[in-house]
């Protein structure tokens, strides 16, 4: 039998805080089989799923699911591998890789016309953080970029296009990092606009000069936000979340028009399930265990309601 205990997180002006976007599957806990020798992390892709099927056949596998994780069960291991006489850099992106024999013609890009190759993102974070281990060869280095933008975009590009909103860039020193280590880099903003998409690319080598067999482990990416000076109320009546013995989550005091998205997060803040809100009763997926402590977030464009739920 499931016993539900609920506890509220109380913030300034109640329980409503500004909605804060995160990258999808930032802890690399979710993986999927896309017909390749290795599964890919959900919402991420690599060089074997480029638009060019002939090149994909010869492209090496440069990413691997690893159980050496900073938290949770998995991280991503990226490795630089020689193929066709060049070093294929271990790379994953939340967009799509444009592969080419000529290194100068290789880039990652957001394809706004296809849900598989873009990541919606509509807020303005202060910085990007994450955890990594690195085993470079010679003077190689980690390269991590997150571009916030409107419309389509690519990395690299010539200059700073008008639709770029901000970019965060982390490059490591050419040193071995054999323990999980946190990095944090600020976003440099070019515009006062809000973005529509995030384009992230993570590489285990230094661009055009990557060295064979450099290895990177990456986990728990996070967008960091400054503490807002105020919070906007999006409802005034009481609101509570309950889960019944049939694993139905019920929104008590809320209408389906009050919120758009529901997220269930573990106590590290990592999202483990997301769904659109189209009913006051939502069936929990079987992947969420009957025992545990979770944060449930109801969100719309103006704010969010967060409640801690203990299932035991």
CATH topology of the largest domain: Jelly Rolls
What's the Cα radius of gyration?
A: 21 Å
Report the CATH C-level class of the largest domain.
Mainly Beta
| Binned strand content | 35-45%
Q: What count of helical segments does DSSP give?
A: 1
Total discrete domains: 2
Name the helicity range: under 10%
In total, the number of strands is 26
> CA-to-CA gap between the ends?
8 Å
Outline the low-pLDDT stretches: 1-19, 227-237
List the helices and strands and how they pair.
Blueprint: E1 4-8, E2 16-17, E3 31-32, E4 40-41, H1 53-58, E5 63-66, E6 75-79, E7 81-83, E8 86-88, E9 91-93, E10 96-98, E11 107-110, E12 127-135, E13 143-149, E14 153-155, E15 164-171, E16 177-186, E17 188-189, E18 197-203, E19 215-224, E20 240-243, E21 248-252, E22 261-265, E23 271-276, E24 281-283, E25 292-299, E26 304-311
Antiparallel strand pairs: 1-26, 2-26, 3-4, 5-6, 6-19, 7-8, 9-18, 10-11, 11-14, 12-16, 12-19, 13-15, 13-18, 15-17, 20-21, 21-24, 22-23, 22-25, 25-26
List key phrases describing it.
disordered N terminus; 2 domains; 1 helix; Jelly Rolls; about 40% strand; mainly beta; single chain; five-stranded antiparallel sheet; Immunoglobulin-like; about 300 residues
Question: What do you see in this structure?
Answer:
This protein has one helix at 53-58, and strands spanning 4-8, 16-17, 31-32, 40-41, 63-66, 75-79, 81-83, 86-88, 91-93, 96-98, 107-110, 127-135, 143-149, 153-155, 164-171, 177-186, 188-189, 197-203, 215-224, 240-243, 248-252, 261-265, 271-276, 281-283, 292-299, 304-311. With 312 residues, the protein is mainly beta.
């Amino acid at each position: 039998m499931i016993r539900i205990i609920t506890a509220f997180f109380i913030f300034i002006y109640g329980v409503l805080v500004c909605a804060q976007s995160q990258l999808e599957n930032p802890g690399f806990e979710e993986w999927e089989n896309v017909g390749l020798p290795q599964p890919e992390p959900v919402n991420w892709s690599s060089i074997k799923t480029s638009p060019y099927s002939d090149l994909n056949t010869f492209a090496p596998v440069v990413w691997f699911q690893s159980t050496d994780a900073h938290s949770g069960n998995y991280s991503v291991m990226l490795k630089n591998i020689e193929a066709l006489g060049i070093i294929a850099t271990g790379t994953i992106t939340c967009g799509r890789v444009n592969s080419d024999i000529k290194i100068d013609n290789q880039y990652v890009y957001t394809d706004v016309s296809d849900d598989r190759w873009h990541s919606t993102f509509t807020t303005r974070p202060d910085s990007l953080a994450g955890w990594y281990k690195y085993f470079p060869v010679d003077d190689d280095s980690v390269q991590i970029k997150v571009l916030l933008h409107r419309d389509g975009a690519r990395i690299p590009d010539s200059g700073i296009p008008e639709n770029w909103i901000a970019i965060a860039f982390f490059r490591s020193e050419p040193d071995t990092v054999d323990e999980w280590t946190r990095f944090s880099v600020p976003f440099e903003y070019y515009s006062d606009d809000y973005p529509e998409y995030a384009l992230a690319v993570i590489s285990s080598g230094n661009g055009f000069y990557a060295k064979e067999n450099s290895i990177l482990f990456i986990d728990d990416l996070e967008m960091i936000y400054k503490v807002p000076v105020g919070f906007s109320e999006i409802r005034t009546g009481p609101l509570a979340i309950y889960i019944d013995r049939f694993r139905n989550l019920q929104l008590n005091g809320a209408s389906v028009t009050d919120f758009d998205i529901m997220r269930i997060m573990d106590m590290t803040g990592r999202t483990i399930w997301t769904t659109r809100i189209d009913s006051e009763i939502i069936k929990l997926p079987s992947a969420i265990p009957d025992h545990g402590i979770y944060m449930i977030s109801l969100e719309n464009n103006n704010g969010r309601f967060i409640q801690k739920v203990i299932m035991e």
